[in-house]
């Protein structure tokens, strides 16, 4: 973030945006001059992102299940201070009825002005103490809650980074988003509102019960034995129905957000096939199911609220009847009865507030369950505890009896034996579903073979660290993904330490230097989300520049030219010549003209390697490759 406020027009004195707006008669914009100094100070205290020290371990160190207890454990001292502040605030809030009793019995009844003055001053002091402790408690617990939530967000995000690709192919992206959004928000409400308020109400009840027994044990026993059981039965019923209701609510909101996310990602297809009406109908049904789940919990809350109010009013009437009779008999003073009735309101108020508190608690508990399920997932492709760094490789790849299937289903690859020599370019060809892309993912170790072994320079991929492996591999998918940000950010994604000269060199190597120079800000031009402001060929060239800047020893290209026109394909092929020079390359080829450029061609059919050789050798064999080539020639003509 810029430190020099004078360089930003909106923040600078007479040239500020607000001053210019006033002179031009435009609506207010920018920062007023009188606030610019404060803004400068705030920005000066902002941490620089580049200096944040972040550590990432492929294997999560903690093994205990995620619960509220494990979340709180590192913060017990801070929670202890919060508890002390809650106790002080509760005592300051609840001392009022006792002061009222003293004022009536010893001040008003006995006409003692000094007692009334003393009670009034004490009352004012209690109000002041309540305000101070309330402010301190809210400020402290607010900071603590945000710190807890930040820690949790980073933990969830880091855990998602560890999970293997099969999790993201099997789980809907909307559900994953729900874990990071509504679930964590529900926990935020629980920590900042629910738990602290629960502590306040619990301490209030304990304090009030103690005072009630002090004032009159007989009335307190009547309250505990007659009124409290009815309230307890109602609370247990509400807990049972809420447990079921809020679990359904969390599931329904996850499904609703998943549908919304899917529609956003496929909006072009939606418009192309004019599916808006059908999609709205489907989303309306999901929204209705979510609303019904909320109606159920709202109905239960309403029944609890009205029921608890009836019980509270009945209790007050009963105490007034019995206590009034005791006053008439002289066994209870007017001040004690007044204080008892005032404390009775403080006794029932926490129980009645359990509606909102328990709703918040249930939402938080449902979120804890969902987050626990997520955080308990283990990567299907784990890094070994004894994994060692892979030394600088030459690029030899051995596949020894490799078999693979997804989810123990039909085999995708069967008994693959293949040696790829260092510096060799090999193309995988075959019909759709033959297993080409799956084998490339195994080489990248996105998945592990069901049986067999894959090694690189004699090192089993299962025995080396992910970092040492992936930093020596380059990967260009069929659909290149560009991140939001500048062109430089996307090219340097594979090598964040690269300077501008190295980024320009990568652009020059793959042939997009002229394109970048025509952009408004060169490599610092901001591209749209997913690179939508670039053509398919340009996005692919940026992805190739990204792979080039990584300086990999092995490059895996997953049908990198299959979706391009002939002009773009020729540019990509020239860029590939620069990228693949001196490197081992595995190319998933959809078009045979790409495969023909390889040193060898591996032909796959139904998950088996059926032919291997150069283009001329395979044509001479008159086998599957020759038939594919003949068919391709006819289609090309």
Short characterization:
The chain has 637 residues and is α/β, with parallel strands linked by helices.
Structural descriptors:
637 residues, alpha/beta, ABC transporter transmembrane region fold, Rossmann fold, 4-stranded antiparallel β-sheet, 23 helices, 10% strand
Q: How is the topology of this model organized?
A:
Blueprint: H1 17-24, H2 33-45, H3 68-72, H4 76-94, H5 96-108, H6 113-162, H7 165-170, H8 173-215, H9 217-265, H10 267-272, H11 276-329, H12 334-352, H13 354-375, E1 397-405, E2 411-420, E3 425-430, H14 436-443, E4 451-456, E5 459-460, H15 466-470, E6 473-476, E7 485-486, H16 487-491, H17 500-509, H18 513-518, E8 526-527, H19 536-549, E9 554-558, H20 566-580, E10 584-588, H21 592-595, E11 600-605, E12 608-613, H22 615-621, H23 624-636
Parallel strand pairs: 3-10, 3-11, 6-9, 9-10
Antiparallel strand pairs: 1-2, 1-4, 4-5, 7-8, 11-12
Helix pairs in contact: 4-6, 4-8, 5-6, 5-12, 6-8, 8-9, 8-12, 8-13, 9-11, 9-13, 11-12, 17-19, 19-20, 22-23
């Amino acid at each position: 973030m810029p430190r020099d406020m004078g360089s930003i027009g909106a923040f600078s004195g007479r040239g500020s945006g607000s001053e210019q707006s006033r002179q031009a008669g435009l609506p207010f914009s920018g920062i007023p001059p009188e606030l610019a100094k404060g803004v400068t100070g705030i920005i000066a205290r902002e941490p620089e992102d580049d200096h944040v020290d972040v550590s990432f371990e492929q294997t999560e160190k903690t093994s205990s299940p995620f619960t509220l207890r494990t979340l709180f454990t590192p913060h017990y001292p801070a929670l202890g201070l919060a508890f002390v502040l809650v106790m002080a605030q509760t005592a300051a809030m609840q001392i009022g009825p006792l002061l009222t009793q003293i004022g009536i019995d010893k001040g008003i009844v006995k006409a003692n002005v000094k007692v009334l003055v003393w009670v009034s001053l004490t009352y004012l002091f209690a109000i002041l103490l309540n305000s101070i402790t309330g402010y301190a408690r809210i400020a402290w617990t607010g900071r603590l809650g945000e710190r807890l939530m930040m820690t949790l967000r980073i933990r969830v995000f880091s855990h998602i980074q560890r999970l293997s690709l099969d999790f993201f192919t099997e789980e809907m992206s909307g559900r994953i988003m729900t874990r990071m959004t509504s679930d964590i928000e529900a926990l935020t409400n629980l920590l900042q509102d629910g738990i602290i308020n629960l502590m306040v109400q619990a301490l209030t009840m304990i304090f009030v019960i103690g005072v009630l027994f002090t004032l009159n044990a007989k009335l307190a026993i009547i309250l505990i034995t007659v009124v409290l059981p009815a309230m307890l039965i109602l609370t247990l019923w509400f807990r049972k129905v809420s447990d079921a209701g809020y679990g359904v609510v969390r599931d329904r909101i996850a499904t609703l957000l998943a549908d919304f996310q899917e529609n956003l990602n496929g909006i072009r297809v939606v418009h192309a096939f004019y599916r808006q009406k059908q999609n709205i109908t489907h989303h309306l049904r999901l929204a209705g199911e979510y609303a019904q789940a909320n109606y159920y919990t709202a109905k239960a809350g309403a029944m609890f609220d009205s029921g608890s109010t009836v019980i509270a009013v009945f209790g007050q009437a009963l105490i007034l009847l019995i206590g009034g009779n005791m006053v008439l008999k002289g066994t209870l003073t007017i001040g004690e009865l007044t204080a008892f009735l005032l404390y009775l309101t403080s006794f029932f108020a926490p129980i009645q507030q359990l509606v909102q508190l328990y709703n918040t608690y249930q939402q938080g508990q449902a979120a804890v369950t969902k987050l626990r399920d997520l955080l308990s997932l283990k990567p299907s492709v784990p890094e070994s505890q004894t994994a060692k760094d892979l030394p600088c490789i030459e690029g030899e790849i051995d596949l020894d009896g490799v078999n693979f299937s997804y989810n123990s289903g039909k085999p995708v690859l069967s008994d693959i034996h293949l040696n790829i020599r260092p510096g060799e370019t090999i193309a995988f060809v075959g019909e759709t579903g033959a297993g080409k892309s799956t084998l490339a993912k195994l080489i990248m170790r996105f998945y592990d073979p069901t049986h067999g072994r894959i090694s690189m320079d004699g090192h089993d991929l299962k025995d080396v660290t992910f970092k040492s492996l992936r930093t020596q591999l380059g990967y260009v998918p069929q659909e290149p993904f560009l991140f939001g940000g500048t062109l430089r950010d996307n090219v340097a994604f594979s090598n964040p330490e690269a300077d501008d000269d190295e980024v320009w060199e990568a652009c020059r190597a793959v042939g997009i230097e002229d394109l970048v120079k025509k952009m408004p800000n060169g490599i610092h031009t901001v591209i749209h989300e997913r690179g939508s402001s670039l053509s398919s060929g340009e996005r692919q060239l940026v992805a190739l520049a990204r792979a080039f800047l990584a300086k990999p020893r092995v490059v895996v290209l997953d049908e990198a030219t299959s979706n391009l026109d002939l002009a773009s394909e020729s540019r990509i092929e020239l860029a590939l010549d620069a990228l693949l020079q001196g490197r081992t390359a595995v190319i998933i080829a959809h078009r045979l003209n790409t495969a023909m450029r390889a040193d060898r061609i591996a032909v796959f059919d139904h998950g088996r390697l059926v032919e291997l050789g150069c283009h001329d050798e395979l044509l001479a064999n008159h086998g599957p490759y020759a038939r594919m080539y003949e068919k391709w020639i006819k289609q090309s003509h």
